[in-house]
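Quick look at the format.
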Amino acid sequence: MRHPPQAAKSTEVLEWDRGRTRRFLDDLASEEPLEIRVNGVPVTVTMRTPGDDFDLAAGFLWTEGMVSRREQIARIAYGLEADGQRSGNRVDVTLSAEATFDPARFDRHFVSSSSCGICGKASIDAVRARELDRPNSAFSISPELLTRLPEVLHAGQHVFGRTGGLHAAALFDANGGLGLIREDIGRHNAVDKVVGRALVDGHVPLGDRVLLVSGRGGFEIVQKALVAGVPVVASVSAPSSLAVQLAREYGLTLFGFLRGRRFIVYAGEQRVTASPATILESPRTPDSDTGCPSDAEPH
């Protein structure tokens, strides 16, 4: 591999600040295509931030249903260019003999952008067809512990600290301990990276973990969490309506607007270990339907 892709790149920029200008080098989050091939068959191209590419590939195969056990992944390696050099933007996955891989079933050859995930596949019917198990009903989390997690997530975002342009996903245990954190320009890729690492390490299903993501809690985040067996998903911004619908149908706990000492429970409030005496009911008004419309994350 001549020049491995980097997670961040420097470029000269011009800053304007109250009438004064200066030129300096600024770090930008990298966004490059990664082609994933399974047994020589291209299955997807996703725009991602280079780094943890093997975790991304393993997580993608798991959450998309191409493998059902980590032992079915025999080998993951970078592919070769036409000149025989290793490519930093192509990953070849070899499945074991026990894995059932039908190329026609996954003949989508889709391109996944960093913003939309696997476009055209956001369907609850497709999730139902996979007959996923409901997440661990015995898992619970306290509000006090939950509100401490975003600070830990932010402290672990090292590339974000340089660029300000990356999402992150992290897995926490029941005591708030940080198990895994991954960054990517695509929030769905960050989730695949943490799920893939957990799969390779033999920790899936993740029935005793909390998944925290920066940005929105979209449908695909909830879908991937369900496949991985995660009972609690939290995001610092708003979830989508389809994400809430899916979480409620499968009994997953979904938090949104997790900021400071405040959050909103959109589904699965039974996992919140707050005393009923602390829960205050307020009249529903048109302005309160989404909780915090003024906090909506910009695109």
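Next, a different chain entirely:
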Amino acid sequence: MVRKVLFALLALGPLVVLLDRAGVGDIELFVLAALALIPLAWLIGEATEHAAHHTGPGIGGFLNATFGNAPELIIALFAVHDGLTEVVRGSLTGSVVGNLLLVLGFSLAFGGSGDLDRRSSMISLGLVGLAVLLFLIPAIPGWSGDPDRHELAVLSVPVSIVLLLVYIGVTVFSLRRHRQQHTSDESPDMAAWSFTTAMLVLGGATVITALVAEILVGTLEAFAEKAHLSDFFVAAVIVAIVGNAAEHGGAVVVAHRGKIKLAAEIALASGAQVAVFLIPAVTLLSWLIEPLPLSFRQVEIAALAGATAFTALILANGRSSRPKGIALIGAYGLVALAFLLAGDR
């Protein structure tokens, strides 16, 4: 049923592009573009999984990392092009915090009691913690003076390279650890698409996502103004949730089916991937457009560090429960409130 609804909603993508050409208002376009990204993100995820089924774990992991974050990456690069640096940093921060608190929280709340992979959880949280520490290098100087000055962008390059190297190392380790899982774990759904079909769908969905993301970014400021919200809040909460909506929903559905360990893995691994892969990737790619400094604000660093520490405390005993899930959701509510009060810089 959910898949049928998502397939039907794919029509929103071309519709948004047509409405943009027809001159529809910015508010309507922002809302429709945000909704259109949800089924597109789901389709990219589906196509990536089918393609990975044919390539094996090595290339499959690369495809997942590259295209799984495609909506967020595309949104970020368009925002960089438009000079919306606060929007870029806010959406990336919000994505990490959203995965650690909101997605994991709903997963635990729907999944109830169960055992978690404590080792894997702590590795993911450790990666986010390492990223936060490295982010302090360009962030602290950005707390005074112009946060977008060139020397901070230069300072962000080695930080990004180190994080990408760490990501590659951890990915190789994880592939070795899970190598035997790529056996006959196949389902009829996964065998349904040929590699060519999966890549064509992936390419088409990515192109439409790029068009919709451009519209979303172009109407963000008008939407924020009409809604009396800061650009930062819209990016860190609304855009961050929308960019991950399909993946978030998948984790909750998996948890509801009783696979709480897998759901927690999805949420935590996604948060870690944004921190050590997507953020540095955006930073390095931004040099092709306009250099982006990783000069995160105090509220962003505090949110990242607090979310990491609180989640580690919640998962310390390797067990899940509904009260823990509710506590994580509540913590996300406090972070969202802090983002709201922080306003634009």
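Residues 2-342 form a domain with the A middle domain of Talin 1 fold (CATH 1.20.1420.30).

See the schema section for token definitions.
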